[in-house]
Amino acid sequence: xxxxxxxxxxxxxxxxxxxxxxxASHSIATVVAAKAxxxxxxxxxTGICNMLGPFIFTTAVAYTIGTAIIAPSSLTPLSLVVAxxxxxxxxxxxxxxxxxxxxxxxxxGAILGAGIGASGVSAVVLPxxxxxxxxxxxxxxxxxxxxxxxxxxxVMLRGDWKLGAVIGATCGAxxxxxxxxxxxxxxxxxxxxxxxxxxxxxxxxxxxxxxFDILISHLFGHSRQNRMRRIFQPLHVVACLFQxxxxxxxxxxHAVGVITALLFSAGMLAAFDVPVWxxxxxxxxxxxxTCFGGWQVVDKMAKKITKIRPYQGFCAATTGSGVLALxxxxxxxxxxxxxxxxxxxxxxxxxxxxxxxxxxFREMMTAWVITIPIALTLSFFGYMVVEVIxxxx
Length: 393
Description:
Elements: H1 3-33, H2 39-56, H3 60-67, H4 77-96, H5 103-119, H6 129-156, H7 161-182, H8 190-219, H9 225-250, H10 254-265, H11 276-292, H12 295-304, H13 310-329, H14 336-349, H15 358-392
């Protein structure tokens, strides 16, 4: 095995480790905030579930990482190594700063930048015009339907119908895209799916968690707090462990996709087929990273967005894991940060807009939006510099 391939494999595993280090917060934030588990037990259990995730679900995300961002023929061992170095540095710095950055989008942006540096813009896998048309038409139809529905509801409840229209349009447009995917009308992969779900996944998480919280509150409205805790604490733990498994099956596939792409680009694989040993090594690296935990990120997600009650933790974890499971099946590398943050905001918003620290959520959203452009830029110029250095040797 060539040294650069071996180095690339080690980097990919390091990427999964820092991924688990940062993303530990997603699975344990609500369970720690609600005091359903101690931080130590939560990290150990979610670490195990992160390792099991890729074996429970599909490896479709790995194929997206390796084949649907940059054309496989344009990926080189050097470009992949540069992309991973940029991703690791970004995720590590964000973790140390307590910023829940998306490791998915850091890697996607870095692969784009290094791929463009190596082979030009033509190497980018662009969506079909038919997909774009369906997204636009579906989004408009969903926005109109959602706005109309909430206008009627707010007028009946004598609320602010203008605010209802904005919220309804936003949620309707976000929900319409997954509905089209589930019905088989829209096949969404690659760059288009990744960019769209930067905005769609937190909105769906927020909406689903908000509605689920209201339903649970209605069903158990007359129950005492102690009884609510007895019922929902164990359910909350189960939901968080399932969420960890979904995270492992989505974010945990980063290293799988990159290592397989490395082996394929070096001619060590005849086709882009994921070896079992690659899945196993990547899962172990992710599990170890999760066990070490990114405690500054956990603190921000668990305590600074909103105060979470046990049943609300269950609602947030259940809806968050449901969204993750859905997109994983379709092979879309989304940010679990986005999903669970939206779900936490959703359960907090049921107590009124003042129950959520919107400034914290805005800071996180800003980080989400700029991650891909920053990673792309750093990776592009990083590849140019490395190529000059390698060429001069």
